[in-house]
Give the backbone structure.
Amino acid sequence: MEQLKNKDFLEYQYLSSLKNSPNKEYFSFVKAHANYEKNKYEYELYLSDGFAQKHLINLKDGPSYFWETDETVLLPKTEEKETKVKIVNIFTKELKEEFIVPFPASSFEKIDEEQYIVSASLNPVFFNEPKEHDTNLYEIIETIPFYSNGQTFTRSKVNQLFIYNKLDNKYEQISSFDEIVSNYYFDKETSLIYFTSIPNSQVLTFHDQVYSYNIKTKKRETLYDKNDYSIADLIPLNNKLYLMANDMKSHGINENSDFYLLENNELKFVHEFSLSANNSIGSDARLGGGKNRRIVDNVYYFIGTYHTSNRLYSFDGEKIEIVIEPKGSIDNWIFYKSKIMTIHLSDNRLQELAFIDEKETKLVSMFNNNILENKYIAKPEHIQFENDGQKLDGWILYPRNYVEGVQYPAILDIHGGPKTIYSDVFYHEMQVWANDGYFVFFANPRGGDAYGDDFADIRGKYGTIDYDDLMTFTDLVLEKYPIDPDKVGVTGGSYGGFMTNWIVGHTDRFKAAATQRSISNWISFYGTSDIGYYFASDQTDANPYEKHDEMWEQSPLKHAQNINTPLLFIHSEQDYRCPVEQAMQLYTVVKEKGVDTRFIWFKNENHDLSRSGSPKNRLTRLEEIHNWMNKYLK
């Protein structure tokens, strides 16, 4: 079998954004691929009848598209002051219509032949001819968060909802700049737009209020204003409004939600769920996403993650049922002609379109079929183990050309989050290491998603039970598999970067480490991350002003004088989730201490470098980590 190389991800085809045509005779999706020479991703819109896939048009302005009619799609190009919209016939590629929305729009949903629901993130003075200043020279900051990962400074922008009429180019703002809209659902049967918002207090909070807006009467009504629940979704069923919500009292900001009925400004408990209601399976072989919650025939469907795979659930207002529970990851899904069509990532292969039911998974595309052909792809071997009475899941990949009786180097990879998980789905970087002669092992320590609230809740326990889970897993792997204990490395990103920093500050058992987009100092993270002021306090169960010592004790920087392991730093300049200063602080200590270290500081990249960074920087990242491990482990 041929060797899989770092650069092979440049050939992968990434699928996203499944949508039914209005008449439901077809469905559409976006296919993307990397263009290394231009250092960007190129997007194409496809149409399918469930059997064959047809290329329609190239999406020159990015992957965003919205169905207009059975033959046309709306393609927005959002600029600083406006949104240029084209309506294109997907069969003839003819431009049918053009108009300009007088503000930068985020999304469109068609109401009728003239009107759309449009969302936009705007400064409250956007429509008042504000006095401009040169943001290349300075920023004016009046809110927290003051910037957002993957974007730029927030500049006091808040999400708003509008009704826009393309015929007269007029709009009606149905929300107010005194609030920040967090979610909405349009119920076409009743002409009601339900939406949630939080007060625009200049400090982002998490307790939502619920409103409705009647498109016909233009009347807004307050449905819930008690500010005591975080609302994950709005679910109108059979003329009743249900909510997926939680009060964050038992498990903090990461608490899972239950189902409630909203009546007379009261939330009435309907059904406990308290499990993951998202796809939290990690992979570096995706680009883009899609809507994974929808109402069909008065039943609400949503994706959740349970242990090591996804489930599609249904909720009818009374009971929750599991519709399908396939292996692997359901990256996106729709109902198509009474079947469940998915973008599926499973069985050690890249994304493909697949029909899934309770009995089988039937692939209907072959976009990635030849890319991995004749390449060695290690099959993840599942390892279930126990630590401190808790059952845990892990996996190991065997090296290419494995020979019994020979000892091999190995790499421990740690997921981010921490409220995400690993599964047995395809992970490019891990497969590349296995192809280069490494055992690769990875696990779901406590703190991750998919095993319930108690499992995920490590507030105030960072670096304790999660560290112990990983070290127990490492002990087990080294005892069971032919691995040279003097040639074991460790790496991870985000929370995995935090844990890498923590590990090398508490043990010398790893001979090389690569810390990526990490946290090293919870105290500075509190004031510099776009989620810092609430995430740091919640997760450490401390704060810089009253529980400074507790927050500092959970910071890897506090233990940095113990680091002897050669340490590679991977960080992005525009990472506003785990700001680059986190790497700067720890790098300085390690360098001054005389430990071998190297800092790769990526320009024009953010926290998502490993998944959606520019092709050239993604390849550089892979090569830097790979070369660092080879330097010390081979």
